[in-house]
């Protein structure tokens, strides 16, 4: 089977609808087809990684478990844009998983290394 | 060239679905192939079969059904997303003409097979 490299780009607030959960579920399906994929969290998308969220009060499932389980599907690395964290007063210690930070200026070359870019 | 189109937005939420529709017609006009249109996330609302906008408005459901009939395009809504939203339960007769239901695996297959993947959200 042909193997293509996928990059899911998550750039908006996690609990504005169900887009993060559904995008990750699609990525897991691709993983079942042995398609290597990773995720880039950028802009407000980085909030999906923040610790100690309680979205149950809003009627949403907690995404932490889903994000932490991505490694089991060989999905990764999880890339996070460094400037997006800084601009929001976050650092790597605030996050639920270990990530690879990437500078904004290097994002285009990261995208170049993938065959398909998927928006969340 | 073989295109997979994915639509993540409902018909009236944004311009995404309109852009997707015009993109598909342009792709066909250029002689390319639409492998599949996969409706995911809120895109599954496209398959509701009772949309009846006033007569002086374009019908955003019907035009997909017409495209499916005219060009034999495979319109697929995601079963999990559709179940979650109550768009579909157990019978495709509940859907607008030309739409069918399938799992995410079908989108993955098309993603692998397509030359180009376009996601409209």
Structure description:
- The complex is a heterodimer of chains A (120) and B (121).
- Chain A is α/β, with parallel strands linked by helices.
- Chain A is 26% helix and 18% strand.
- Chain A has four helices and five strands, in the order βαβαβαβαβ.
- In chain A, strands 4-3-2-1-5 form a five-stranded parallel sheet.
- In chain A, strand 1, helix 1 (19-32) and strand 2 (37-41) form a beta-alpha-beta unit.
- With 121 residues, chain B is an alpha/beta fold.
- Chain B has one domain (2-49, 58-120): DsrEFH-like (Hypothetical Protein Ychn, Chain: A).
- Chain B contains four helices and five strands, in the order E-H-E-H-E-H-E-H-E.
- Chain B has a five-stranded parallel sheet, with helices on both faces.
- In chain B, strand 3 (75-78), helix 3 (79-85) and strand 4 form a beta-alpha-beta unit.
- Chain B is globular and about 35 Å long.
- Chains A and B meet through helix 1 and strand 5 of A and helix 3 and helix 4 of B.
The class by helix and strand makeup of chain A works out as alpha/beta
* Low-pLDDT regions of chain B: none
Note the main sheet of chain B.
5 strands, parallel
> Could you tell me the strand content of chain A as a percent range?
15-25%
Number of β-strand runs of chain A = 5
The domain tally of chain A reads 1
**CATH classification class of chain A:** Alpha Beta
Name of the CATH architecture of chain B: 3-Layer(aba) Sandwich
Strand content of chain B: 15-25%
- The oligomeric state of the chains shown is heterodimer
How far the N terminus sits from the C terminus of chain B, by CA atoms, comes to 22 Å
Q: Given the structure, what is the number of helices of chain A?
A: 4
Structural class category of chain B: alpha/beta
**CATH H level of chain A: which superfamily?**
DsrEFH-like
CATH fold group of chain B: Hypothetical Protein Ychn, Chain: A
Inertia-based shape of chain B: globular
- Give the domain tally of chain B: 1
Radius of gyration of chain B: 13 Å
């Amino acid at each position: 089977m042909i193997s293509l490299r996928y990059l899911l780009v998550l750039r908006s607030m996690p609990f504005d609808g169900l887009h993060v959960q559904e995008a990750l579920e699609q990525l897991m399906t691709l993983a079942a087809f042995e398609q290597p994929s990773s995720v880039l969290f950028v802009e407000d998308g980085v909030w999906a990684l923040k610790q100690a969220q309680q979205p149950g009060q809003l009627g949403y499932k907690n995404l932490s478990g889903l994000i932490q389980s991505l490694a089991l599907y060989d999905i990764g690395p999880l890339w996070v844009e460094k400037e997006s964290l800084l601009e929001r007063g976050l650092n790597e210690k605030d996050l639920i998983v270990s990530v690879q930070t990437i500078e904004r200026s290097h994002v285009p070359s990261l995208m170049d290394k993938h065959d398909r870019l998927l928006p969340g | 060239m073989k295109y997979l189109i994915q639509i993540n937005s409902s018909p009236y939420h944004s311009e995404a679905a309109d852009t997707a529709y015009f993109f598909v017609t342009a792709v066909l006009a250029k002689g390319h192939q639409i492998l599949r249109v996969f409706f995911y996330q809120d895109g599954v609302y496209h398959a509701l079969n009772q949309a009846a906008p006033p007569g002086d408005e374009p019908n955003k459901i019907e035009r997909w059904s017409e495209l499916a009939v005219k060009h034999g395009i495979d319109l697929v809504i995601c079963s999990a997303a559709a179940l979650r939203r109550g768009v579909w339960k157990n019978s495709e007769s509940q859907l607008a003409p030309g739409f069918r239901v399938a799992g995410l695996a079908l989108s993955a297959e098309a993603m692998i097979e397509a030359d180009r993947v376009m996601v409209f959200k």
